[in-house]
Amino acid sequence: MNRVPIEQILELPVPERVQLAQQIWESVFEQTEHVPLTAAQRAELERRWLAFQQHPDEGEAWEDVKRSLLDE
Hints:
Elements: H1 6-10, H2 14-29, H3 39-54, H4 62-71
């Protein structure tokens, strides 16, 4: 694995840094089993999952929420 000093990364143009950050985030998302959660975060996820199971038609699809946020 090639390592690049953070100072060199911070010199990249903003769009390239955004793209790099997104690639890093997506790589983390692919390995969520390695992301530690606090007890409070686990409890909140469980609460939301149960609420979804009880009322699956409530709320909005992620695609719609994302589109709404990006249109602002």
